Amino acid sequence: MKRHLLWLFLLLQAIAFSYAEAQTKQHVLAGDTTEGRTGASFRTEVAAAQSGGQAAQEPGADLVESALAELRKLYRPFHHRIRKQHGVFGTLLQFALKALPSLRLSAPPPETPHRSALSGPLLHATRLLEESARQNNSDALYILAEMNFYGNFSYPRNMRAAFDYYHQLASLNGNNSALYMVGLMYSTGIGDAVQRDQARALLYYTFAANRGHTRAEMTVAHRHHVGIGTPKNCDAAVKYYKRVADKAIAWYRSGPPGGMAWTTEAYRIADETGGVYGEGASVASAGSNAIKAHPNSDAYASIEDIIEYLDLMSQKGDFEASFNLGRIYYEGQRGLEKNMQLARKYFFEVTQKYWRKSRPVDSPKPNLDKTAAKAAGYIGRMYMRGEGVEQNFDRAKFWFERGAALKEARSQWGLGLLYLNGYGVKTDVIQATELFKMAAAQDYAPAQVQLGSLYLDQGQSDDLAAANHYFELAARWANIEAYYYLAEMNFFGVGRERSCSAAVVYYKTVAEKVEPLVSSWAEANLAYEDGDTELAFLEYLGAAEQGYEKAQNNVAYILDPDKSRLPIPKLLDHRSRVPSLLQNPTLALIYWTRSSRQGNIDALVKMGDYYLYGIGTDVDVDKAVQCYTGASEYHQSAQALYNLGWMHEHGVGLNQDYHLAKRYYDSALETNDEAYLPVALSLLKLRAKSAWNTLTHGRINSIKDEPKPKKDWSLSEWINNFLQDDAQYYDDVYDDLYDDTMPGGDALDFDDGIMESFVILGLAATLIFLVMYRQQRQQMARRRDEETARQRRQQQQQQRLQQQQQHGGVQAGANGEDEQQQPQPQDRGLFPQPGDPDFGQWVAGGIGH
Ligand SMILES: *[C@@H]1O[C@H](CO)[C@@H](O)[C@H](O)[C@H]1NC(C)=O
Ligand SMILES: *[C@@H]1O[C@H](CO)[C@@H](O)[C@H](O)[C@H]1NC(C)=O
Ligand SMILES: *[C@@H]1O[C@H](CO)[C@@H](O)[C@H](O)[C@H]1NC(C)=O
């Protein structure tokens, strides 16, 4: 009740404020005060009367009150972080925990709400809320909507009911959150509550955004930025992104000295397994993106293992291990909560080794001084910000001075901050500037930002250039304030040309960085870890709408029906068990598309797959080719190159051409040596087919650089040929690798191991047979699909164009085999042209639907 009153008070204040503003505006503009004043005061009175009535009692408020009391009985915090256990017991426990969610999933999916299944307090509370909602109580409507949407209190989800409640609330009093949710449901068409409709979605989002709903602002900005349901419009995008960025930076600065701190939660689920195509095959984990072993990557070791190892080293007296532990606990990361007490303990362990009786020890171990200085910087920071300790500027100064005496950047910056703001000392801007300069020279981003903003305040053109320089330096470290300053300078044209396109990207980065303020990443990740994939999906969906590429990728990945092509997981994965909410390939395609448009290459390849196999859309081989071609530019995706090679080999969507196929396979190998085995096998098969084709004078373009086969082309010659080519490959790649490690240098001498080679070839042949057999079957299936799709298209055409009907009919009748090589009359390219009826839907994010 207290919160309610507070809320009303704030609302009243806001109304009063906005009318006061309107009044002053009129005063200035018209010079006639009387009209404005009477109008304003009249309206304020009405508003006050209305809210006064509400404050007295919104109908049904008491019902909500008792419903909440009922629900409180139910509510157990369901999500909590589980620190991974170690040892046999821990592993067992983990498995048990993993098993729990799947048991929950195996319950019959709630297609229709099982009201009868509700019982006890939940049923009682629901009845009370529904009664209250009938009296148009906004709280009741809101809670009911959330329960139906998110399934709070394990209420069975019902998207249609959720939509109705949100819609009712939105039309009742224009509640921002309700408007936003209605927009979200129109945008995604989730749970079949409503027809997907991007125009309406944008309308509702814009309503909510104009009333200051932060997520809606981001969503609208994103839509204008990339052009979803509306043409691209930089000015509109920057307007909304700036609003969010302004809030973001205000929130950031409202924190302790040095700004708010939080751990980044945004990540791609798929990346945990090496990308959507798995380790090595995805752009995310191949080539230059291949995961390097470094302490912050959990590629080769979990964070728990790292901590355990460091702890051991630390106990043995390794001060660097202690320092790193302190840093890990101080900064925290996804899946590891910050722990200021432990951080402090480890930092003090380090400093105690260096400063004894407030004097540095004589002849310290090498590097101890540097490490101790860094630890001092952290301790000072903790005192300055009151993290894990009582805030105390004197102590902060003490530790910063210790660190700064050793020229440590964090300490210099901290001391500078104390002097700049007069925290516990007399304000001294000159000294602060000196300190910031020293820290900035060591490439310490926060100091660079401080220095930049000091220069910015001077305002001369030289100073602006210097400011710009420092901000750009700091932006290399992904510093949020640096991004914000750069955005502002680009937006207002300060110290540089005005540039909307640059400003919008910087604002977007700022907005997306402040995850706790604007998004539900943390909740989504927790739900996902807990195995509640549906809830995670709903939470990621919001972030995806807001424009987070990673969330778009996650949504698509969760919905992806084609996650694994391996046969074994298929056995375990019972399709029927996938909840109906997550069976939505069309939505998956939409989000792959959006993710790819933000530059995700793997998503682009995925799009190609969907068009090739007709997942969530009609089969459209041309679009598939265009996606693969886009992804293979600059040799980015080996998978795309491989697919193109495969299409050339089989004449699917592209001319059957063995020579080109080989070129693509070769490029795939160049792009990505991890793909060696599958590509080598495909090449082997291709060579065999090409040789057969040449031998039988087939009509397909064979591999050219192959020596012209003599009449008595023998298997042994052919094998030799193949091995020669192959040896060349090995020579190129492994030359430098083996040069100095292997005596003799000749690492892979195939002639020596003829027997071995034959064994390998035998195995390979078996594999090839299996692969070919499988592909043959797939191809047959695809041919069938394409044939039906083609027939359908032709029928449509028949209705429209009489002449083409005859033409197409004759062709299809006479030459059904050649279908792939004929230009498809309905081809419209990857992107529909403006004016095409599909254009509206295409810009809305999904092609062709
Ligand atoms: C609730 O609101 C709707 C539309 O705003 C109105 O038609 C209806 O009469 C209201 N019901 C009650 C009980 O006030
Ligand atoms: C929307 O209505 C609900 C329920 O009355 C309220 O809790 C929430 O704060 C409102 N949202 C906004 C943004 O006003
Ligand atoms: C329902 O659950 C969602 C997701 O966990 C949460 O964001 C929301 O605040 C909850 N609503 C209520 C009324 O508890």
From TrEMBL:
Entries under InterPro entries matching the protein: Sel1-like, Sel1_AlgK, TPR-like_helical_dom_sf
Bias type Low complexity, positions: 794-806
Leader sequence segment: 1-22
Protein's UniProt keywords contain Methyltransferase: no
Protein name as catalogued: HCP-like protein
Pfam (any one): Sel1
Residue numbers spanned by region Disordered: 782-849
Protein family (similarity comment): Belongs to the sel-1 family.
Transmembrane segments: 753-773
Record Gene3D superfamilies: Tetratricopeptide repeat domain
Coiled-coil ranges from the UniProt annotation: none
Keywords: Membrane, Signal, Transmembrane, Transmembrane helix
A GO-annotated cellular component: endoplasmic reticulum membrane
GO biological process, one term: ERAD pathway
